[in-house]
Amino acid sequence: MIETKKLTKRYGNLIAANEVDLFLEEGDVFGFIGPNGSGKTTTMRMLATLLNPDYGEAYVCGKSIYTHPQEIRRLVGFMPDFFGVYDDMKVIEYLEFFAAAYRINGPARRKVCEEKLELVDMTFKRDAMVNQLSRGQTQRIGLARVLLHEPQVLLLDEPASGLDPRARIEIRNLLKRLGELKKTIMVSSHILPELADVCNKVGIIEKGILYVNGRVDEVMKQVRQAIILHIRVTAEPERAAKLMETHADVAKVEVRAPDLIVVTLKKGILDYSFLPTLLLENKFRLVLFREEELNLETAFMELTRGLVQ
Q1: What is the pLDDT of residues 40-53, one digit of tens each?
Q2: Whether 206 and 243 share a structural domain
Q3: Residues with Cβ < 8 Å from 262, sequence gap 6 or more?
């Protein structure tokens, strides 16, 4: 559904997108992660045919951004980070205005607007003035707007930017529902953990360079070279640490304040049942024993170590 080949955009001496290669299939939800100014918006604007690349190629639904921009615009729903709203319109009027622009006419226009309001849980605000909505409500109306023409591809640039925690959760839940509709979604964020439970693929971009690109589980495997365990015992954590350090399958053991023991196993060791057995045989009582969870934030730090200056 989305394919780019060495997609490049320069602004003078600044390379905003540096030979970006992407391949997204139908139903993929792609988390595009990177700090502000890393090249996320530039890449998405090129895919939406709002910005011409200096080099490279991109296809959306099999159509080139160079030769079929008008067709691509009918297939894509692009929601920028900040978008204008009309102060003197009600929510339903705002949606109907854009539905008319998409040439949705007659009774079908009101029907599709009502359906999209229901999808984004904003039916209760259908007669409210657009300029009286909260930031979170405005974002949801923006999502309803880009869904009016039933696009196959959604390009959502920082949809949770500037939202309070509750509104951010609501947007995340909405993205999950959109993913269930089998649309191909590219959603950007500079907040790393925000997309972890929404996306099946992830890309990490910095200074225009796509350092990481793949399925979330594969990215995690790249980072997880060895299993790390968090252990607590009721007493004498230092002695327990020294005991575990002597085992042949343990690479490193450290005690962190106040009494957390962090055990790193040697690469390739997947079975760590020997550790609780060892501790119990030596009269230690366990109060915590769990594998350290890996999130996208950890993945970003590990995979870009030494690359991002």
Answers
A1: 999 999 999 999 99
A2: no
A3: 228, 229, 230, 231, 253, 254, 255, 256, 292
The identity of residue 47, as a single letter, is L
pLDDT tens, position by position, 268-285: 898 999 999 999 999 999
The pTM (predicted TM-score) of the whole model is 0.77
For residue 195, give the nearest of 185, 183, 182 by alpha carbon. Answer: 185
* CATH number of the domain residue 119 falls in: 3.40.50.300
Domain that holds residue 241: 225-293
| Higher pLDDT among residues 159 and 306, named by residue | 159
Distances in Å between the alpha carbon of 42 and those of 8, 190, 226, 242, 259?
Answer: 9, 14, 36, 52, 47
157: helix, strand or coil: coil
Which of left, alpha, beta for 89 (phi over 0: left; psi -120 to 50: alpha)?
beta
Length in residues, the chain:
309
Residue 309 within a domain: no
Q: Which residues does 169 contact at the CB level (< 8 Å), separation at least 6? A: none
292: pLDDT confidence band, cut at 50, 70 and 90?
A: confident
On whether residue 299 sits in a domain, the answer given is no
Q: Kindly state the percentage of the chain with pLDDT values over 90.
A: 60
